[in-house]
Amino acid sequence: MxxxxxxxxxxxxxxxxxxxxxxxxxxxxEAGAGExxxxxxGFLVDSGQWDHEFAALSRDHRVLRYDARGFGRxxxxxxxxxxxxxxxxxxxxxxxxxxxxxxxxxxxxxxxDFALAHPGRVGAMVFVGAGYWGQIADTTxxxxxxxxxxxxxxxxxxxxxxxxxxxxxxxxxxxxxxxAVRRRTREMTARTMQRESNYWKRAALDQREPQPPAxxxxxxxxxxxxxxxxxxDQPEAIALSERxxxxxxxxxxxxxxGAGHHANMEAPDAVLAEIRRWLAAHADDARERRATx
Length: 293
Fold this sequence. Notes:
Blueprint: E1 5-9, E2 14-21, E3 24-32, E4 36-40, H1 51-57, E5 62-66, H2 83-93, E6 99-105, H3 106-117, E7 122-130, H4 141-152, H5 155-168, H6 179-193, H7 199-206, E8 225-230, H8 235-247, E9 252-256, H9 263-266, H10 268-292
Parallel strand pairs: 4-5, 4-6, 6-7, 7-8, 8-9
Antiparallel strand pairs: 1-2, 2-3, 3-5
Helix pairs in contact: 2-3, 4-5, 5-6
């Protein structure tokens, strides 16, 4: 696999990477210095989901984020792949040996698979609205409408359906959600869904997933894991976070009241504070382990 990296400075403090892997070119960005935090976006948006955290954490960490293949500025072509292999390629190309993982939805599935495949490379994990392959929200009308649009390839229906199901959630009207958050989410969703070639058009054909799946191996996860879920997320997403919290040794679960699937976008300060708390606590743990090794 070719992991060629092309770099260009896009701002004074941010460096962009284009990472060539089999069947895709992955767009990544990094900034800051210190312990690395790698950010994996949810599969209805792109790496812009982490704008707030990327800027804030770069003050005292090295931060890295990328668009998964078929999202944002990353390409996708026919051919078998696994998302956690793409993550490994990004880390290798950027010279990252060990990292904390901050991940949402499908990004959390990628992080979980990576943590099981490469336990020594993950220091801690924070999941927001965790997802996993094959775990589908389908019990509410908005979720079913999204799935129907997805099945028919209706881009406009997918955009509207994803906003209604996952940004608004099953109990809120659109006008009850922060307008700026809803607008930003729509921008990212539209960028992916309106592309000629995107993840959702190829996922079922080409994506390869570990066997047995990570949900059957939660007891093997070694990285300290914090699960954050919004109270207004789909019921299946809330139940999945609860299942992971019960199954991962030492995991903690935090519910964010009044937030949907992308809880970090609706409650940025509260979520950032929890991320910082978790990273600080387990950075101390890591230093103690190194000191006694």
